[in-house]
Design brief:
The protein is α+β, with helices and mostly antiparallel strands. The protein has a domain at about 65-135: Ybab, Chain: A (2-Layer Sandwich), CATH 3.30.1310. About 40% of the residues lie in helices and about 15% in strands. The chain is built from three helices and three strands. The protein has helices at about 25-30, 40-60, 100-125, and strands spanning about 65-70, 75-80, 85-90. The chain is rod-shaped. The N and C termini lie far apart (about 60 Å).
């Protein structure tokens, strides 16, 4: 090679490596054997993901999940973003001499509802568990 020749790497596509699947993520985007990625397909995938995430957010904001404690004497209602919407307390558990017990029941009911929201968020995850949305949907 002389100093006048440009230094270029030649990319040769001999197909999939031995043992590799013929269809891969690049092939799905039009990259395998076409000389490059299909940016239009990538943009559409991003738009579709954004749409699915927006729909999941809306479903979660409309969801209502109840949690209870003490055999139902304390019930809390959360939405799918863990916002506390309602607390119901049976008057029979209101003991001015044992306020701590009432607090414990409220915490237990909230924890019960939070577990239900976590399940709902997992079901609503447009990534289908592939990395998850973690705290993006309001969960802990």
């Amino acid at each position: 090679m002389s100093d006048d020749e440009p230094i270029l790497a030649e990319i040769v596509d001999d197909g999939p490596a031995e043992g590799a699947p013929a269809e891969d993520a690049l092939a799905a985007l039009g990259g395998a054997g076409t000389g490059g990625l299909d940016l239009g397909a990538m943009m559409q995938m991003a738009q579709d993901m954004g749409d699915r995430m927006a729909q999941a957010q809306e479903r979660l904001s409309q969801a209502r999940v109840d949690g209870s404690a003490g055999g139902g004497v304390v019930t809390v209602t959360l939405d799918g973003h863990l916002h506390l919407l309602r607390v119901d307390i049976d008057p029979s558990v209101v003991d001015p001499d044992d306020v701590a017990m009432l607090g414990d029941l409220i915490v237990a009911a909230w924890t019960d509802a939070q577990a239900g929201v976590a399940r709902l968020q997992a079901e609503s995850d447009p990534l289908g568990g592939m990395g998850g949305l973690d705290g993006l949907l309001g969960g802990a």
